[in-house]
Amino acid sequence: MKFDKPLAIFVGLGFPREVETVFEAFQVLNEWPASGRGPDHQAALDACRAALIGSGDAPAARQAFEAFASARDILAPDALAASARNFAREWLST
Description:
alpha+beta
């Protein structure tokens, strides 16, 4: 099940990754460290699982995955903006 629009996220050591399908989002969520999981992680996992078994849909899974990624600051545009803010803050404090 493809998303209508892919989500660009940063994974690992800041490597970009395009998540284009429910299954790819499900994989990212399954591989997420246990220490970084929470209610939004579970909601996204449940939405992806529901879409994969046919009791949910791709738009709902994408929305839940995007909410999870946004909460973790791993959405590519958000992560780049946060990184730039942190760099500027550090540069101005020196």
